[in-house]
Amino acid sequence: EQAVPMAKPLLVNAVKSMTVDDAKRILTGGDTSVTDFFKEKTSAPLAAKFLPIVKGVTDRSKLSGQFNAAMGQAGKLGLAAGDSATVEGYVTQRALDGLYLMIAEEEKNIRRDPLSYGSAAIGKVFGLLK
After folding, report:
1. SS3 15
2. Residues 30-87: pLDDT tens digits?
3. Would you say 54 and 88 are in contact if contact means Cβ atoms under 8 Å apart?
4. Per-domain residue ranges for the chain?
5. DSSP string covering 19-41, please?
6. Quick one: pLDDT at residue 16?
7. How confident is the model at residue 105 (pLDDT cuts 50, 70, 90)?
8. pLDDT in tens, 5-21
9. Whole-number Å distance between alpha carbons of 90 and 113
10. Alpha-carbon span 79 to 66, nearest angstrom
């Protein structure tokens, strides 16, 4: 919860850096093409911003150290790697998954009934896709 507000500037920057090709893919893509665009453009920088906050919270728990020690041993056996190798990595990835899930659900709602969301321009753009 503490990290999510950091997403807004990165999402806004993704929109500002959108190319014509990006816009075409969004308009002709599926029900979550906007979410897919955001995920592609913001996953890595959001993970970098979220991780220190998540680590600060998880470090206060003794479980964090125990989990990381156990996962370190599992990693040596080839049973754990990447995001699941530390509690903070795991929690950070799940937070990002949740963020993109919420964006996707909102996008689906907008596409389903574009006229009830936002301006008439949004309704016109998404209404053309039906």
Report:
1. helix
2. 899 999 999 999 999 999 999 898 888 888 877 777 776 776 766 666 665 566 677 8
3. yes
4. 4-127
5. -HHHHHHHHHS-TTHHHHHHHHH
6. 93
7. very high
8. 888 899 999 999 999 99
9. 35
10. 17
Q: Which CA distances in Å does 119 have to 8, 78, 80, 110, 126? A: 20, 52, 47, 11, 11
pLDDT at 89: 85
Task: Tell me how far apart the alpha carbons of residues 88 and 128 are, in angstroms, rounded to a whole number.
Answer: 43
In this structure, what are the phi and psi dihedrals at residue 79, rounded to the nearest 5 degrees?
-95, -15
Of 55, 80, 53, residue with least CA distance to 69: 80
What is the DSSP secondary structure assignment for residue 118, as one 8-state letter? S
Length of the chain: 130
Please write the tens of the pLDDT for every residue from 108-125: 988 887 777 666 556 666
- The angle formed by the CA atoms of residues 77, 80 and 81, to the nearest 5 degrees, is 115
Distance of CA 47 to the CA centre of its chain: 9
Cα 92 to Cα 16, 36, 87: the distances in Å are 25, 18, 8
